[in-house]
Design brief:
The complex is a heterodimer of chains A (about 120) and B (about 110).
Chain A (H helix, E strand, L loop, with lengths): L4 E3 L2 E4 L5 E6 L6 E7 L6 E7 L2 E5 L6 E5 L5 E5 L8 E8 L4 H4 L2 E2 L3 E5 L1
Chain B lengths: L3 E3 L4 E4 L4 E3 L1 E3 L7 E6 L5 E7 L5 E4 L2 E4 L9 E3 L8 E9 L3 E4 L3 E6 L1
Parallel strand pairs in B: 2-12
Antiparallel strand pairs in B: 1-4, 3-9, 5-6, 5-10, 7-8, 8-9, 10-11, 10-12
Chain lengths: ~120, ~110
Amino acid sequence: AAGVIQSPRHLIKEKRETATLKCYPIPRHDTVYWYQQGPGQDPQFLISFYEKMQSDKGSIPDRFSAQQFSDYHSELNMSSLELGDSALYFCASSSGGTGSNYGYTFGSGTRLTVV
Amino acid sequence: GNSVTQMEGPVTLSEEAFLTINCTYTATGYPSLFWYVQYPGEGLQLLLKATKADDKGSNKGFEATYRKETTSFHLEKGSVQVSDSAVYFCARSYGNNRLAFGKGNQVVVIP
């Protein structure tokens, strides 16, 4: 079965650069979630989209922005990168905006390293 | 709050041993509860879930029962294998479709 696809798998950027992470949800899923997992930490909710509209916002820095496109894929844009942004970024998807009741499906993540 | 607490520290045990990982949650509302597993270098995989009190989630020999009276969702497996070595996260639903995770437990199974 098709899963959530994230790209790239690994990304190395320098401080103050910009990064774009992409997420392709499971077909027919209309809701996308982004989480950040720092080294040795639990995942933290960043932001979510339902039917191309932002549905919830968590601890996402102002330097980050995200959107969901007409084909339901989502992109997380990160500017003025800092060393502390180094983390594993997960995308997840669900159908109907009720994923947290039944458990979302996560992608394999993008590991961002800022040097 | 909407926190999830897992027992401290890694868990090291021998193959075929009994595994228990404790998880408690704050009793705000009626959350759904989950266990996710993360194998080295990989993403989070949903292991099992329970959506209401007294539900038992089970998968691949793992089980957890939603205990409202003790606000717990402990994970158990009767006989672990080396391939079960991974990090296990307990999670609860909250707010507008979010998940709150515990700190995770590294499980190492020795042959």
